[in-house]
Predict the structure.
Amino acid sequence: MTSRPEKVIKGRDMQIAITIEENKGMDSKTSSIFGRCEYFMFIDPETEEFTTEENPAKNARGGAGIQAAQLMVDNAISIVISGHLGPKAHAVLFNAGIAAYQFQGRTVREALEAYNEKTLTSLFEPDVSAHSGQA
Amino acid sequence: MVITVASGKGGTGKTTIAVNLAKTTSDIQTVPAKTVWLLDCDVEEPNAGLFLEPQITEEKQSSRFLPVFDLDICTGCGRCAEVCEYNAIAVAGGKAMFFKELCHACGSCTLNCPEGAISETPQPVGTLRRGEAGNLGFAEGILEIGFSSPVAVIRDLKKWMSCGLDPEEIFILDASPGTACPVVESLRNSDFALLVTEPTPFGLHDLKLITQLVRDAFSMPCAVVINKSGENDGIIEEFCRERNIPILMRVPLSRKIAETYSAGRLLITQDAPLMNQFRSLFEKITLELETRSAAR
């Protein structure tokens, strides 16, 4: 058995995932939560080409953060930008070598600007406790 | 005979009805006496013991088999994470990661690992205790803090007590609120479900849910007890008429009863008419069961 196949989009070696609340392209409102956010936007920071995917974990009975983090791993994401990040999701991202940054502003556009200006805060540790994203 | 006391809604008085029914039933057993057991299956917050003050004579650990991952063998193929219904496994950095708080010990990961990298070892998830409260047998399960699956503890408790195997024993089970897995596990193999409700829209709403579970899913005979009974009983009566469910007893909404309960005392020790009602409640349940099996 070989290792897990990873979906790498051809020609892109760097992908950012941003948690968002609505599907409105670059003007989408960013989400403060990770595991149960509405959508993920996958962006190539060079070209600003993006795709949006509904979060399959948002209504999970439990372990939403783990499932969402697994989605990041499976999509070979390099960087995750979210309002907050809980301990289990953080552990999965950390083990996969995915860097996590905190963004608490408004839109994807602003988040990308902040990323390019290197003003985002690194989430070296989870910043909220488990189940913080539950409604 | 196994009678499970359930309600759907929390706070309707399941435990109150269960402990008073169990105590009365054990008191009225004549020679040859059947052993009556009260099993507290509300393992997330067992409190029947507060009313019965049992002498605990035996204690046992409840364990379940949790997966252990041999990361030297693990290739990170991700099959275990794929089959895990509870998101307890992730695969990152080419290796499996296990979150035991989310594990329901279903065994799917072990069965599906193509490398044989997963084995299972028993881990304590709760404590089982049993003893006696006078002539009444008592047993309870206590779920370990931080574990999410009470089902394993309830299953273990019923197995340890050989619940329902000896027809000479009467088991009265105090189930947890709701209609989810722990309640299903408590109801499994019961002969009768006693549904405790209160005459409020919330009580009625959850009575409908528990009726669906008991009647429609389990095809189990059932009856209703209205607790905090009063002028609003009509909404419960109407539903019971529609679904043809007998109402076997009413406990009035009364300050005196509430005070007795809050002091952790049994209602039957304070209130003679209520004691007689509990006595006939058991007879009515027996009668319901007999009519049922005769009709079959």
